[in-house]
């Protein structure tokens, strides 16, 4: 098993690009390097400048690479197709011109990846983690979402050679076990892979180890995070948005929470996973002073269990 551990701007509270409290992207790059990571994700559209020369220079100065870009938007609405494809075009044009890591033997697809996540629906945001009360899409709306995902993946692949990976996300319309199974059926592996996230999997009522094993044939990329049991049990009893739960500390440094990472390592070895895993810890950007310590703690813990 050849694994490279990277990180992402969400560890610094970067999810909503309109939040006035976000740290400067240069700080994220500085602290990612200081914590011992060789690379990171670009973050949500509009956070890091879409200027490959400026960003490439900043990465090179810190010895960093970019492993993935992100589409984090409404994947359901047909009216959003043009916006989604514009983002895809602009993100892929940048990430394919930024420093890249050495590719691992046995890795299915080369970096950079484009992680594709549905977001922006209040009715699902407030039902994050609640399989029984989360509304599901109609067949027509589901078909529209599938068409949008296929269009994103086709543009990324045909124009830039970038592999799109679908990321089930708490609070979006691809979250729960039934939805992951349906998207796996409706979007074939030749069109897009999966980026499975241990934290979102657990948050949404699934076993991360069993889910990784079940979708081994689709797993092109992965995210690691951990969950504070006490905070998780409390927020599930509240009417709360997913990122409000994150601001309350539901995500914690890896090794402090409920997810069994030795078991995760074992299943990745069993399925022969090779490639990249990104550490995440969504948080309130106003608590960014703790980000460097937390991402370093996560990296050190993963190293201690063999990653």
TrEMBL record:
<dbReference type="InterPro" id="IPR050312">
    <property type="entry name" value="IolE/XylAMocC-like"/>
</dbReference>
<dbReference type="InterPro" id="IPR036237">
    <property type="entry name" value="Xyl_isomerase-like_sf"/>
</dbReference>
<feature type="domain" description="Xylose isomerase-like TIM barrel">
    <location>
        <begin position="29"/>
        <end position="304"/>
    </location>
</feature>
<dbReference type="InterPro" id="IPR013022">
    <property type="entry name" value="Xyl_isomerase-like_TIM-brl"/>
</dbReference>
<dbReference type="Pfam" id="PF01261">
    <property type="entry name" value="AP_endonuc_2"/>
</dbReference>
<protein>
    <submittedName>
        <fullName>2-keto-myo-inositol dehydratase</fullName>
    </submittedName>
</protein>
């Amino acid at each position: 098993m050849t694994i490279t551990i990277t990180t992402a701007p969400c560890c610094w509270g970067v999810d909503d690009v309109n939040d006035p409290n976000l740290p400067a992207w240069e700080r994220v790059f500085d602290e990612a390097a200081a914590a011992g990571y060789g690379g990171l994700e670009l973050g949500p559209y509009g956070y890091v400048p879409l200027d490959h020369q400026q960003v490439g220079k900043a990465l090179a100065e810190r010895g960093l690479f970019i492993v993935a870009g992100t589409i984090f938007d409404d994947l359901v609405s047909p009216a959003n197709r043009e916006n989604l494809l514009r983002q895809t075009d602009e993100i892929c044009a940048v990430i394919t011109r930024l420093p890249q890591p050495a590719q691992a033997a046995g890795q299915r697809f080369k970096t950079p990846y484009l992680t594709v996540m549905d977001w922006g629906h209040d009715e699902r945001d407030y039902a994050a983690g609640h399989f029984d009360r989360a509304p599901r899409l109609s067949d027509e709306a589901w078909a529209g979402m599938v068409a949008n995902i296929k269009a994103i993946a086709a543009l990324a692949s045909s124009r830039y050679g970038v592999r799109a990976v679908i990321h089930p996300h708490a609070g979006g319309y691809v979250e729960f076990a039934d939805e992951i199974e349906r998207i796996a059926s409706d979007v074939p592996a030749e069109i897009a892979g999966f980026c499975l996230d241990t934290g979102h999997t657990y948050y949404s009522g699934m076993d991360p180890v069993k889910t990784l094993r079940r979708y081994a044939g689709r797993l092109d990329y992965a995210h690691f995070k951990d969950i504070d049991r006490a905070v998780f049990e409390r927020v599930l009893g509240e009417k709360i948005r997913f990122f409000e739960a994150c601001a309350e500390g539901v995500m914690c440094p890896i090794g402090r929470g409920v997810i069994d990472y030795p078991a995760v390592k074992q299943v990745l070895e069993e399925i022969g996973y090779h490639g990249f895993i990104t550490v995440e810890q969504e948080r309130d950007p106003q608590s960014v002073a703790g980000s460097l310590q937390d991402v370093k703690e996560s990296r050190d813990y993963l190293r201690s269990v063999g990653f």
